[in-house]
Design a protein that fits this description.
Elements: E1 2-6, E2 11-15, E3 19-20, E4 26-27, E5 34-36, E6 57-61, E7 70-75, E8 78-82, E9 94-97, E10 105-109, E11 118-123, E12 126-130, E13 139-143
Antiparallel strand pairs: 1-2, 2-5, 3-4, 6-7, 7-8, 8-9, 10-11, 11-12, 12-13
Length: 158
């Protein structure tokens, strides 16, 4: 489970993956749960089933510059984005191709600070960033880390 909290809007976003399906196999799901932050989890206001194929990697990021994080599933080099805040169908509104090499670790962050999430691949200690989401890395070759590391993309200095 991954949790992200934005204190400026008093909500928490929770992504859950690896939930067992009714057939007993491990499946990944991206679920959005929002709750008021008041020292405790509170109650869930919304859930959204999206993804569900074994190996799916759930992520979040704002892909349409509306200030609301969208649900993302990375699956073998294809990025499926469900634009929030509604979750009526659980299907992808946007798709992008980037990455797909065995061992790629997908991340989402606003690398170029334009207000739209960028696609990031961490591959064996090297970072590749697609700021145009066109399948190509506009920023690449940043060597930081080593194979097997667990990368984190975030803004640490505001």
């Amino acid at each position: 489970m991954f949790e992200w909290a934005d204190p400026t809007i008093s909500h928490r976003v929770t992504l859950v993956d690896g939930q067992p399906s009714s057939l007993g196999s491990q499946r990944a799901h991206a679920c959005l749960a929002t709750s008021t932050i008041s020292g405790a989890m509170g109650s869930v206001n919304q859930t959204c089933g999206f993804g569900g194929v074994a190996g799916d990697v759930p992520l979040i990021g704002d892909f349409n510059h509306d200030g609301i994080d969208d649900l993302v599933i990375y699956r073998n080099g294809t990025w499926y984005v469900h634009l929030m805040p509604t979750c009526t169908s659980g299907s992808a509104d946007l798709t992008f191709g980037f990455g797909g090499v065995a061992g790629d670790v997908p991340l989402v962050a606003d690398w170029d600070r334009d207000g739209i999430a960028d696609l990031i691949i961490f591959r064996g200690g090297v970072w590749y960033v697609s700021t145009r989401r066109d399948g190509y890395a506009q920023a690449y070759g940043y060597s930081f880390g080593a194979p097997g590391d667990a990368p984190l993309a975030a803004r640490f200095n505001q």
